[in-house]
Amino acid sequence: MSLCLRRYARPQHQLRGFHTSTHNRNLDAIVPNASRQWSYMPSSATISEDEIRRLAALPRRPLTLADLVRHGRPPLSEEALLSSANFTLSLLPARLAHRIQRLRNLPFIVVANPNISKIYNNYLHSLSILEPFYQKRITTLEEEEKFTEVMADLVQTHTNTIPILAQGFLECRKYVNVAEVTKFLDQHLRARIGTRLIAEQHLALHMASTPEARQHDPDPYNIGVIDTSLQPAKIVKSCEAFVGDICEFKYGVRPRINLNGTVDATFAHVPVHLEYILTELIKNAFRATIESGNEAHSIEVTIATAPDVPNSKLDALKKISVTDESVHDYSQEGLADYCTSYEGIESPINAAAPSITIRIRDRGGGIPPEILPNIWSYSFTTYDMEHAVNGNAMDDGLNAITNGGNPSSIAGLGYGLPLGRAYAEYFGGSIAVQSMYGWGTDVYLSLQGIGKTV
C-alpha cells in the first residue's frame, strides 16, 4: 500500500459582501462592488450548509494520549487498522465543521483577509473530501487505503496554518482587539493540535502496518506519533545544540546548559510537541542570558518525575482542563459520552498518568514587570512588529529558529510561548513562569504521560 501525498488545486473564490458593519469604508477599499449578501466567505466546496451546521452541532469529546494508543502497537492487524480508520472518522468531521463555524463568526473584514480566507477554504476543502467516507463505515483495506490518501492530503493542506493565520491577524490588527485575537487563536490552535494528531496518528499506524514495514522488526517503543519511552534529557540536549548553533552564528557566544535531576527518566508522549516546547523555552533563556551579558552562567535544567497516584477515570479526565474557560476542541456534552464510552473497558485512562516536570532556570535578568502580563498573548512580542510586516523578521537571528528560516516563519509574531503552552496543556500539562526581575527566570514545564500501554 502506498500513499499519494498531493495537494488538490483550489479555485480562487470571489468576495461577495457582508451584513451591516462598522467597517464599510475599509471593506469597500479591498472588496469593490460588494453586494453585502454574506457575513462570511463564500466557497464552491461541495459540502452543503446544512451538513456543516449538523456536524458543528455534534458533541466533541476530548482526545487523550490513551486514545492514540488504543489500537495497539504496529504493525496492526486488518481489524485494528480498520478500527483506527473508523475511529479517526468518528472525530474529525465535527471538529472541522466547528472550526469553519468559528471562522465564520469573525468580522467579515477579517475573514476577507487573503491569509485567513485561505485557512477558511482549506477547512472547507478538507471537510468536503471527508464526506464520502464518514457517511458509512470503512470495511475493507481498499477503502482504508483511499481514506489514508485523503488523510495525507488533509495533513499537507493544513501544514502552514499557524504562520498563515499569524500573518493574517497581523494584517488585521486594526480591526480586532488583542483580547479577541488571543481568545480565538487559543481555541483555534488548540483545536488544530487535536485535529492534526488524530490524522497523523492514523497515517503513522498505516505506514507502520504496510507489507513493506512488516518485513522489518517493529519499533518496540513507537505507537504512531507516540514514543512510549521518550527521554526528555535527550530532547533537551538536542534543543541545546540547535539553539546554541544559532546563537554562536548570530552573536558569537554559546550559552551552556547544566542538566541535572532524573536525567534517565522516560514517559509516553508526543516527541514533536516536547521538542517544540523546549526549543521555545531554551531559546528564550539563551536570548535573555546573552542580552544581559551573563552567558558565562549556565542555564540550569532540572528533570523531576512525580510518583504514580491512583485516580478515577473522571479525575484523570479533569487533568485535560475541562472548564468553560479552557474548552477548545470538544464540548461539555462530549465529556459525558466520553466517560460512558470507557465504562468497563481496560484502558490507560483508568490510572493517573505519570508526570514529568522540567525546570529551566536562567540568569537573564528576569522579565520586566510591564511585559510580564502580556507574555501569554498571541501577537505580543518585544520584536519590532513593522519588521515582521515588511518581511524582515529574519533580521532577528534567534527568532529565526522558529522554523529554520522558512519564508512563512512566525518569527517575530509573538506565537512561541502561548503556542508552547497550548501544546503543554492539551494533554493536561502546564507551563508556569516565575520571574525575579533583575536576576533571572524560572520556567516550570509539567507534562502528563499515559499510565500504561498495551
Automatic annotation (TrEMBL):
<protein>
    <submittedName>
        <fullName>Uncharacterized protein</fullName>
    </submittedName>
</protein>
